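Running this now, will post back.
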Amino acid sequence: MSGPARTRTAFVLGGGGVLGSTQVGMLRALFDAGIRPDLVLGTSIGSVNGAFVAADPTMASADRLSTLWRKVRQEGDFLENPFRSAARAAKYWTHFMSIRPLRNLIDENLGVERIEDLAVPFQCVAAHIESSRARWFTTGPVTPAILASCAVPGMFPPVEIDGQHFMDGGLVHSIPVGRALALGATEIYVLQVGRVEQPLNVPTKPWEVASVAFEIARRHRYHEEIDSVPDDVTLHVLPSGSSSAPAISITQGVGTRIEERAEQAYQASAAYLESRLLTG
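Update: finished.
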């Protein structure tokens, strides 16, 4: 006679640029509650945070990420001098930031070279330019896979891997709940950065049109996948605790906003998890 099916817990980390510090607070709340992943999935900045969690699925990874995000704020690795950015845009036409600081951050701090050597299964996604399809990285060198997942169009250059070219995973899977379901997850924790909590407004200015259109493209698959979660799967969308989450998030890396978002997410997610444990 077989026993009860084993719970397979997935952490799903979505994209959101420097708003990704929100996920650090959520991770702290999860580990405080004794919740550990059996599977980690990441998109864009979620692939960075997710890889560190997959390398060490304990509170130590959240502490490491807190330190790294503090370093990003203090040293401004991803807030380049505007004159340098303008020069790069004029030279390359396709992007205005170098992806090298992110490559260095991963290589110098993750401590794992290949995806299959991470402590728990990890996958990240990127948009494959040549085929216009999603590419899930499940094995192989971890740094190029993460860089491909983080290659925001216009900000970073496309990433080349084995002669193929990739852009940001958020173009195809902004918050890959469906992938977690396909891989057999029975309990899913969604670590989003706050954008999906905010309703979109009808654009009234020319520059708002592209932003709203992009957000619709990012969100529609997520909402469809959320609606299709079967009754026997437990879904937790952790709250960010923030009243706003701008679509263009680069200014959120200025000053103390990075750490503020992490702390807000910790408080909100800890309260959510405590209430679910009490009622569950």
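Confidence is low (pLDDT under 50) at residues 79-83, 85-90, 249-255. More later if anyone needs it.
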